[in-house]
Amino acid sequence: MPIKIKILVSFLGLVAVSLVYLGLKNLKVDLDLKPNQANINTPLERDADWDNDGLPNREESYWNTDPNKPDTDGDGYLDGEEVASGHDPLKPGPDDKMEKNNLTKTLSEIAFAGIAEGSLKPTSPKYVESLNMVVDGLFTQSEINLNPRNEISTKVVPDSYEAINIYKNTIYTLIESMAEKEGESILKLVDLIDDTNFFDDSKLKAGEKSFQNLHNFSLARAAELNRNIATLEAGPVPEMLSEQHRFIIKIFKSVSISYASLANADSDPIQAMLSFQNIIILFTERLPDKLTEYIKIMQDR
């Protein structure tokens, strides 16, 4: 079953889990002040982008931006550009970098607000539309959380037979090894995820064997990936391979961030679920295409 459908089906159960996790006394719902809930009942054409700012109407509602104004905060950057780069579309720059959001807490707050004003009650005629809007927003925020914030650093050198040969024997070999190791790690990760109950807060904590195994494995994978990424960034890269090289580093950085998120599944299980999905998508869809292109260039040299 696709993970988005799982989230939809499990939504009300997750609200209950979030309640246990956060505690009723810690939840302060203010429908007028919560930016993520302010427009939840607004009728919008979900896939349209009225102001052509790169942020569809459904996401304008999530971010509480103006769907008819391409630059809501007036700082010279389109709302879609700001969200994609991890900046707050409601706060003028330069000090508008967004912190990573706890998606489990966000879901809990949105659920309470939506149920209170009616759109997230199962009996509401706008229930499915509102629920889809919430899920789309969570996926958008997850992408921001898992996107490498720092610029990809590479040591580009002029193309030459010697530079390409050095790259082949060192960096290329390491990338092949990293890809092979990640394939093996994903098989192990699938088993660990299967043993870990993300929907039972009492099981998702330090001391519980299944979670502790996932936590230790994920931390070790993130540490190993970061060491290898440092080598990839420090090694000389022929200019002709620099674009593919940066893309591969970015993928491995996102995988590393995802493992770190999985290690903290006890504090944000929703993000952990989406981090697992991110690893699978990166390794089975995005990385193979780039590696195929990359390997072809290397074999032609």
UniProtKB/TrEMBL annotation:
It is found in: Secreted. Residues 73-82 have a biased composition (Acidic residues). Its main location: secreted. It holds the Pfam family TSP3_bac. Residues 39-97 are annotated as: Disordered. The keyword Metal-binding does not apply. Keywords: Calcium, Secreted, Signal. Residues 84-97 have a biased composition (Basic and acidic residues). It comes from the Bacteria. This is EF-hand domain-containing protein. It comes from Candidatus Yanofskybacteria bacterium RIFCSPHIGHO2_02_FULL_43_22.
